[in-house]
Amino acid sequence: MDKYFELNVDSVIDYVKSKIDFFSSDAEYKCNEIGDGNLNLVFRVFDSKNNKSLIVKQSLPYVRAAGEDWPLDIGRGEIESRILGIEYKLTDGLVPEIYIYDPIMCCMVMEDLSDYVIMRYGLIDGEIYPKFVDQISDFMVKTLLLTSDVVMEHKEKKESVKSFINPELCEITEDLVFTEPFNIGARNNIEESLVEFHKTHIVNDEKLSLETAKMKFDFMNNAQALLHGDLHTGSIFVNKDSTKVIDPEFAFYGPMAYDIGNVIANLIMNYLSAFYGMADGDKKDDFCRYMLSTIRDTVDVTKAKFLSVWDDVVTDTMAKKKGFKEFYVEDIFANTAGVCGCEMTRRTVGFAQVKDLNSIEDDSARYKAKTTNLLIAKELIINRTTAVTGQNYLDLLSKYCK
Ligand code: SR1
Ligand code: MG
After folding, report:
1. Last residue in a domain, options 53, 80, 111
2. pLDDT, average across residues 332-336
3. Which ligand 1 atom is at minimum distance from the Cα of 39?
4. Residue numbers of the domain that contains 94
5. Is residue 92 located within the same domain as residue 145?
6. Distance between CA atoms of 300 and 298, rounded to whole angstroms?
7. Phi and psi for 68 in degrees, rounded to 5?
8. What is the distance in A from the centroid of ligand 1 to the CA of 38?
9. Whose atoms come closest to the Cα of 262: which ligand?
């Protein structure tokens, strides 16, 4: 195949046969398109006779969720396959293994994760994941700290920054996360009942706008570490034993807080979904308790690992000076709260929303969940320097969740 074309469930089988020596000659091929994200085609190709499978992910030249009039850089899969290779090594396999990247068809062929589920859907079903906090904190500390200037040789890190310049995908985040939800924007997607609330509490709040502007320019100008760039619970595969992070096509060198804040925001939105959407009873109480401890521990365990791993890995002479590590990590977690608030806001009123909140069937419960989410988000952005421990997040949740 010497020219790009969009694959389908039939052509992808020939594609796989021509590209990779993976299936046996007696394979009985089957294929599903399983992509549920906003951007790509994702095929699961499997051999039902020998029980083997793999994934083919193909970039489309436009935003899938919007159609062909929103064009998008088709080379993003190259960035994604490169960062996955780096993250695979840094984290001992907390991401899927990439078998091939094909720059003509803009396809990645990779390990299938059929014994995992997308974390967002698992949590919506009330499932718990006992190993998640330990594994996601490992993922974040290893991928972020080890790609930063405090650890990497500085010229090598600058070369890496260059090679991960990702302007079109970053522009999506600059617009959809840090700009449009805080304004009256054409691409916002606001429930009728929330229109006034959004205008009064978000758009017209000058303090909030100012603090969000600061967050936006930190995102654009702080090339601190190699980020995943879109680390929400739809980018995380889980089961009871294991966690695998997928989909880092928004990767670039940016503030570490962007990844950490995304994880925490999506956990909080799931908690709000359960708190307002689940039927009262023991199941709801147990699950809400589990989500609160997961939110608290994700903050505290990640921070504790940053502080403890620091001494073993940091190479920069000045970064080793007394007090710098605490200053650096505290700054990450203040900005984490700010990012968390921006992500919570955009997932409530912006272009790309989350099922956790939108699937609450009862109108008044959904309204309560979404307005509570926006009020907590505002506080996280404005008062981010005081939201730096797990308990700080729990205090905010108990203040607003009534
Ligand atoms: C146009 S893309 C919309 C969103 O989907 C991706 O998963 C990112 O979160 C992006 O902001
Ligand atoms: Mg994605």
Report:
1. 111
2. 98
3. 2
4. 11-111
5. no
6. 6
7. -70, -10
8. 6
9. 1
Give the per-residue pLDDT at 305.
98
The residue type at 318: M
**What is the average pLDDT across 1-9?**
94
* Ligand 1 centroid to residue 402 C-alpha, Å: 31
The ligand with the least distance to the CA atom of 236 is: 2
Ligand 1 atom with minimal separation from the 65 CA: 1
Given a cut of 80, whether residue 1 has pLDDT beyond it is: no
Residues with CB under 5 A from ligand 2 (ion): 37, 247
Task: Supply the pLDDT for residue 39.
Answer: 93
Other Cβ atoms within 10 Å of 213 Cβ, number: 13
Closest ligand to the CA of 171: 1
Assign residue 54 the CATH number of its domain.
Answer: 3.30.200.20
Distance 169 CA to ligand 1 centre (A): 9
Count of domains observed in the chain:
2
Amino acid sitting at position 77:
G
Ligand 2 center to 182 CA (angstroms): 22
- What is the residue type of 157? K
pLDDT computed for residue 16 by the predictor: 98
Residue 139's closest CA among 98, 94, 97?
94
**Could you give the CA distance from residue 397 to residue 402 in angstroms, rounded to a whole number?**
9
Indicate which residue's Cα is closest to atom 5 of ligand 1. Answer: 38
What whole-number distance in Å separates Cα of residue 288 and Cα of residue 283?
Answer: 9
Q: Which among 57, 89, 111 is the end of a domain? A: 111
CA distance to 41, 136, 221, per residue, from 295 (Å): 32, 12, 28
Q: Which two tokens stand for residue 204?
A: 């017209």
